[in-house]
Design brief:
single chain, mainly alpha, Recoverin, domain 1, 2 domains, two-stranded antiparallel ribbon, elongated
């Protein structure tokens, strides 16, 4: 099982870039790590506990970053990470993870006018340029599937959900 931890506690100047050394931990060691993080001893990690962990390495997490972490680790969608979920996640992390910075970069590419949301026209322009897709019906269907709150704009949160599928 692999868990990524920093042996020195050092941080990088940009908190979206994480550079650290990789250590292999067994299930018992990961369980002990969970217990250390579980400050209130309720057997689950809350957003506050995860945020506190990140602050110990000088990272001030945003709501979106915490959403991203919990989307991956909170399999029951309760707003808390159980010890079982934590161990399972650390036992077999995805081989290739997309970083938060990469998602932001991709989102900015789609959000041509920089207003914090992607319109159907912006999506059409990017897909035409990057894939040659010019079928408006197909783009409309993709946009509608991603715009889950049906406000005619894709937020960063909706974009992240789409990229996870």
């Amino acid at each position: 099982m692999a868990m990524i931890i920093s042996p020195t506690g050092s941080t990088h100047s940009n908190h979206h870039d994480i550079i650290c050394q990789r250590y292999v931990l067994n299930d018992n060691q990961v369980s002990e790590t969970f217990d250390l993080l579980d400050v209130d001893r309720d057997g689950k990690l809350s957003r506050i506990e995860i945020a506190a962990l990140l602050r110990t390495v000088n990272v001030e997490p945003t709501r979106v970053e915490l959403d991203f972490i919990f989307e991956e680790m909170d399999t029951e969608k309760t707003g808390k990470i159980t010890k079982e979920d934590f161990i399972s996640y650390m036992r077999s992390p995805p081989v290739r993870r997309t970083t938060f910075r990469e998602l932001e970069t991709w989102f900015r590419r789609y959000d041509a006018d920089g207003d914090g949301a992607v319109t159907e026209e912006e999506m059409m322009a990017v897909l035409k340029q990057t894939t040659g897709l010019i079928d408006r019906i197909q783009v409309h269907e993709m946009f509608a599937a991603t715009d889950t709150n049906r406000d005619g704009r894709i937020s960063f949160h909706e974009f992240v959900k789409m990229m996870q599928q």
